[in-house]
Amino acid sequence: MSGTRENWGSRFGFVMAAAGSAVGLGNMWGFPYKAGEHGGAFLIIYLALVMVFGLSLVVAEFVLGRASQRSPVGAFRIMAGRGWPALGVLGIATAFVILSFYIVVAGWTVAYIGLMARGALAGGQPEAMNDIFNAFVTRPIAPIVYAGGFMIASAAVVIGGVSRGIERTSKLLMPMLFVILIVLALRSVTLPGAGVGLSYFLVPDWSAVTGATWTAAISQVFFSLSLGMGAMLTYSSYMPREHNLPRNASLVVTLDTLVALLAGLAIIPAVFAVGLQVDAGPSLTFITLPAVFAQMPGGVYFGVLFFILLAIAALTSAVSLLEVVVSYFVDEHNMRRAPVTVLCALLVFALGVPSSLSMGVWSDNTIFGQSFLDLMNFISTGVMMPIGGLLIALCVGWVVGPKAIEALKSHPDQAMPLAGLWLFILRFVAPVGIAWILLQSFIG
Ligand code: TRP
Is the pLDDT score of 140 beyond 50? Predict the structure, then answer.
């Protein structure tokens, strides 16, 4: 293991990279469709869960990463000792599985930039958009080519390394993403008839809340903040001691939440304004929204911008998932970054192929009644990620324990007023809460 480990060049660079990991398809696609499905109280429940569980777990992963200066496997060995490195392996496996279907969906967003720009989606009703979507994703080859292209782009960034690859890319792309998103949100909320959608999104309606609202919100918090599998841990392992850790964590959580909120504003009022259904579920992004753009003045331009936005968000997230896998081989087996990255990318891509085919030619081969893509999604985000999050909370809360509070500090006499509350959440509140989601997802 080499003595000098690469670090982020600046605090801004770290925050952009970590926010780049967090801000992804989860924010632009998952959050708006869930808020649309569950109605007004989803937002407030989501915000509460972000503040209690989300922030605490981001800080926990940051502590493990920065104090150990290692990627997950080494971090758990150094911080918690025997047995715990297995949790790092679980994280690597989770990253691998998530990335395999993430590149497939990310590939669709790239394809949609082209479809939009060529005018193939102009003047359509949702039924027509549904046909276009299905015609594309059921094709055997094209979606795989897009997924492969996306994998290559992500690998290129990771090969560039931490500061020259990931940090530089994030510093360029994340501000762009913010600008595009603000333009889209302004367009959406100023459409005639947007008001109904605004109040649907923002005004809590407790009558619509069920157990499913809470489970949807908490799993959204995990996915959106890239928690439970060591992505935040890996990024913080390159964080220098001088950085104010709790402040970095709050910044990342705030940015991710702000982006989800803006994505909701960009999408939900626009859907209402053109009189379409906001509770379409996952198809909101690829079927409802193109129909919305088709009916909005200048919609082609906003549509192209929207899918560029999605592709950017997906790229910086895919990079973080790949970095978790790559950093393990670099840290623990002293392997060179470039060849390891190429090999990992090839394996991830190979696992992505059946996910892509499961939308079309292989759609008859279901496993437990689910397509391969849905199954990969369920196993990773419904099972592996919550288990990882639960164990990380227990590890930092009980095994690292009060020492973790020292590791929060940049210098020994820095005041940590809320550290006791943080440890309490990790010890009791988070484990119980996460165990409950896991139960729900098995019952469901
Ligand atoms: N957070 C990203 C999103 O919202 C996805 C993501 C990146 C992720 N890295 C992760 C999810 C690690 C879980 C774990 O789309």
Answer: yes
